[in-house]
Amino acid sequence: MKLLTLNCHSLLSPAYSRDCENFVREVLRLRPDLIALQEVNQTRTAPPAAGDLAGWTPPAAGALLRADNHALRVARMLQEAGWPVHWTWTFAKIGYGRYEEGLALLSPGPLAQAEDWFITRSRDPENWKVRKALSARVTLDGRPARCICVHMGWWGEEEEPFPAQWEQVEAGARQGEPCLVLGDLNAPAAERGGGYDFVTGRGWQDAWALARQQEGEGSIPGVIAGWEDRLVQPVMRIDHILTDTPLEVARAAIVLDGRDGPAVSDHYGVLVTAKWRKTT
């Protein structure tokens, strides 16, 4: 199975249309079995989406799709190219005063039991610290798994502490069923004593660390929005694919970085090729 996560920073670039086209082209080249996207925006004043919603599975609580929703645009482009995408999206908070920012999961296979829930105490969409998780049940490598997409806050945040957010993420896992968490954790893998160590210390394994072959280094190119006043390391991998079930990972790679595919966001993608480890 191939797993891809990307904070796509959608609608914000002057070259958005080109970036979207490049992203779709790379998806068709890479053929991932699951895609987790963060900062999946729609303009808050755009009209509701109309027409064919292209494989849309709303979360149980529902969500209002608008005409310029990024995930909807990507899904339509993929379907037009012959890729049978199924997807779900949720709105979490207002971004930059203009956008309804959310999370999305996409797969060529069916999604089931789509759910979303708040992982922060605040649920005010005007509060930029508000965070949600989005999950769906997806069959990967012949086995149903719970897949959770996240965009976490920062370690050290007092108002919405990272540990409390992560505990709410874990609440979406299902006992006896494999669980994968994919997304932007705002947690550098090389930073000790922060969010990455907290998560892996609770038994979650980083697919990157498990990989026999690793290609690339950081998932952001340097100082980006939100990191201006924070400690920035020379190379930061803050986007992760985590598992609570043993994986055999053949390859983990930074993609969509201008080297392995064109850069389409202020983040790069993380792509993992893996299979479930056989247990006796």
UniProtKB/TrEMBL annotation:
Transmembrane region(s): none
Keywords: Endonuclease, Hydrolase, Nuclease
Gene Ontology terms, MF aspect: endonuclease activity; hydrolase activity
InterPro entries, alphabetized: Endo/exonu/phosph_ase_sf (IPR036691), Endo/exonuclease/phosphatase (IPR005135), TDP2-like (IPR051547)
Coiled coil: none
CDD domains tied to this protein: RgfB-like
Domain Endonuclease/exonuclease/phosphatase: residue ranges: 4-267
Lineage: superkingdom: Bacteria
PANTHER family in the cross-refs: ENDONUCLEASE_EXONUCLEASE_PHOSPHATASE FAMILY PROTEIN (PTHR15822:SF23), TRAF AND TNF RECEPTOR-ASSOCIATED PROTEIN (PTHR15822)
Name of this chain's protein: Endonuclease/exonuclease/phosphatase family protein
Taxonomic source organism: Candidatus Faecalibacterium gallistercoris
